[in-house]
Amino acid sequence: MRIWIDLTNSPHVLVMRPVIEALEHDGHEVRVTARDFAQTLGLLHRFQIPHTAIGHHRGERLAAKGAGLALRSAALVRWARAEGGATRGHSKGAQRREAGREHATGTGPGRARFDIALGHGSNDVSVAAALLGIPSSTMFDYEWAAVQHHLNCRLARAVVVPDAIPPERLERYGARGKIRAYEGLKEEYYLSDFEPNPAILAQLALDPGRPIVVVRTPPEVSLYHRFENDLFAQVLERLRTAASDEGVQSVLLPRTDPQRVELSAVPGFVVPRAAIDAQSLIAHADLVISAGGTMNREAVALGTPVYTTFEGRLGAVDERLIQTGRLNKLRDPLQINNIKKRPPKSGGAGGVQIHRDPQVLVELLLSPLTSRSAAPPRAGPADETSDRPRSTLPGFPSDPTA
Questions:
Q1: How many angstroms separate the Cα of 383 from the Cα of each of 354, 355, 388?
Q2: CATH: 3.20.20.190, 3.40.1190.10, 3.30.1490.100, 3.40.50.2000. Which one for 2-192+356-385?
Q3: Same fold: 2-192+356-385 with 199-335
Q4: Phi then psi dihedrals of residue 400, to 5 deg
Q5: Spatial contact of 216 and 291, defined as CB atoms under 8 Å apart
Q6: Positive or negative CA dihedral for 362, 293, 42, 53?
């Protein structure tokens, strides 16, 4: 099959990397388009994933996002038509018109069309695929991004989400009958072949014998997080005190250049000047404090204690993690006290990591092309559900938007 994957934000590269590898291992042709935003293109280059860069982020206001959706979706349609465009199921008249487009664009009658389009929260590819008559699947793990989901869930034929999200929360978006649920966290799938690299400690001049805290700033672009996070400012002040009084080493990971400039001027913190291997840092840390979602769940997946300072509406995934004690809700900076070194596990970083097989995600994403009677696959440990060779990745760069 020919499969089209569109990536609009840096976490999507991490999620789709093992999916791309599995699809290519099975002999499918995968074409990737990507938006120039955050570290999306940088991660694609790091993982040596061939791609075509199309469009860029057009601002955080809703009107700007709407304009960006229209412009980039149109650009994706033009690209896909040049690559082989629409599906085979059109009427004869539509097929004749498409043949004319093929002749005009030079794709030729022998060029295979895309069988399916995949994205993780990409509105752009859902719209473009619908215009071209290509079936699509969408993924996400936060159910309250209503503007995004009203588009994706209605246009996609499969909605791939964690099983923690109650189906009734998604049905209002038009997802009834389309939900394909997987067990656990998406981070447990894409980190299944991850091995922490201790070199990150030397890179940041961190003393492995002293406590290390990783801090992620609040998002400023996401539509679901539109207000100031006063608690986060109190957390920074508490960590400044811990640095001077207790020898705690706090590494701040800003999302934007203005944040980086501002925080670099504050004494008592380590603020990297460029992208780092954030996952290895998390694995070696003793505590993570984050206002975002992906980094919190990466800490959970890697077995590192984590507090969330997210002040928006909690999604079902975080609700379950808090209920089960795997994620802690920070309500008062005084909760951060007596930070100690964690005992290391055998082989290096502390904590217990759960491994899940990315092939489960592949099968759910491709489900629109399979028999409706086929039972959805269930997730299990990677070493029990796949015979594919697992690559060992020495860490990933940080994601400034998670």
A1: 11, 8, 9
A2: 3.40.50.2000
A3: yes
A4: -80, 5
A5: yes
A6: positive
Task: For 272-293, write each residue's pLDDT tens digit.
Answer: 987 788 899 999 999 999 987 8
Which residue is it, tokens 């990315």?
Answer: 358
- CB-side neighbour CA atoms (13 Å) of 391: 11
Strand partners, 6: 33, 119
Bridge partners (DSSP) listed for residue 308: 290, 329
One-letter amino acid of 245: D
Q: For 199-335, which CATH class?
A: alpha beta
Q: Residue 374's pLDDT is what?
A: 39
Taking alpha carbons only, the member of 306, 300, 312, 314 closest to residue 330 is 306
Q: How far apart are CA 161 and CA 184, in angstroms?
A: 10
Distance CA(82)–CA(105), nearest Å, equals: 6
CA distances from 166 to 140, 175, 315 (A): 13, 12, 10
Give the residue extent of every domain in the chain: 2-192+356-385, 199-335
- Print the SS3 string covering the chain: CEEEEEECCHHHHHHHHHHHHHHHHCCCEEEEEEEECCCHHHHHHHCCCCCEEEEECCCCCHHHHHHHHHHHHHHHHHHHHHHCCCCCCCCHHHHHHHHHHHHHHCCCCCCCCCCEEEEECCHHHHHHHHHHCCCEEEECCCCCCHHHHHHHHHHCCEEEEECCCCHHHHHCCCCCCCEEEECCCHHHHHCCCECCCCHHHHHCCCCCCCCEEEEECCCCCCCCCCCCCHHHHHHHHHHHHHHHHHCCEEEEECCCHHHHHHHHCCCCEECCCCCCCHHHHHHHCCEEEECCCHHHHHHHHHCCCEEECCCCCCCHHHHHHHHCCCCEECCCHHHCCCCCCCCCCCCCCCCCCCCCCCHHHHHHHCHHHCCCCCCCCCCCCHHHHCCCCCCCECCCCCCCCC
pLDDT in tens, 346-398: 445 555 678 899 999 999 999 999 854 334 444 444 444 444 444 444 455 44
And the tokens for 372?
Answer: 């409706």
